[in-house]
Amino acid sequence: MLNKVKLRNIDVYAFPSRSVLLDFIKNEKKILVAVNAEKILNNNEKLHKIINENIAYSDGVGAVMAIKQKGLKTVKIPGAEFWLDIIKKFEQEKSFYLVGSTSEVINQTVEKLKQDFPSIKIVGFRDGFLRSSDKEQLKNDLKEKQPDVVFVAQGSPKQEYLMDELLREYPALYMGLGGSFDVYCGEKKRAPSLFIKYKLEWFYRLLNEPTRIGRQSVLVKFIFLLIMKKI
């Protein structure tokens, strides 16, 4: 029996390893939501509801620290890596649909996936720029092609809102990926291993994107609340 822990207004599973999460989602038709410090401090009730109805996992070191403070064991599971773990695990038995980024990036992503996973069954894909008419077309396409897994890379909370809307029309396993397609096909670089090892991915992103300073200031508030045991 897996434990859940409440971090402010959201419920997060304490997965002890990636393999446990992989086994857990095998037959699920819900949304996988990556949780980090920013999501924990977010006051968006609509987003909270989506998270609590689905499968939240610790994607950031802040979430891991908060869960451990509650007395549970867990590990950081980076969504930028875990979506590829899903493909590797279920390549032979599940079909996939991809939504997100630009037309150029999604095409490059699909081609690279076919090279890296020769047996992968990609039943459909499209970019992440959706008008109302595009959403209806996407829903119909999902119903027609019936993928088992749908990856949506748009950034949060936009991707969570879209996945929630799609799930209500077509049940499948959904996962939000942010900028993972761009990283996978080389359009953006992930933090070097040294930054990852010392849990400084956030600092690397800040160095490369100084405009993130407003978002990263959330970490200071989060650490203070964690020390005060108010998470």
Would you kindly provide a written description of the structure presented here, covering whatever features stand out?
By secondary structure, this protein is of the alpha/beta class. Among the domains are: about 80-190, Rossmann fold; about 195-225, no CATH class. Helix content is about 50%, strand content about 15%. Strands 4-3-8-7-5-6 form a six-stranded parallel β-sheet, with helices on both faces. Helix 4 runs parallel beside helix 12 (about 215-225).
* Count of alpha/pi helices: 12
Report the biggest beta sheet as strand number plus sense, adding barrel if it closes: 6 strands, parallel
Q: Can you tell me the CATH topology of the domain at 81-190?
A: Rossmann fold
Specify the overall morphology. Answer: globular
In what order do the strands lie side by side in the largest sheet? 4-3-8-7-5-6
Span from first to last CA?
24 Å
Low-confidence stretches: none
- The level of helicity is 40-55%
Percentage of residues in strands = 15-25%
Classified in CATH, the superfamily of the domain at 81-190 is: PrpR receptor domain-like
User: Rg, please?
Assistant: 17 Å
| CATH class category label of the domain at 81-190 | Alpha Beta
Number of strands: 8
Order of helices and strands: EEHEHHEHHEHEHEHEHHHH
Q: Structural class of the helix and strand makeup?
A: alpha/beta
| Second rung of CATH, namely the architecture of the domain at 81-190 | 3-Layer(aba) Sandwich
Mean pLDDT: 91
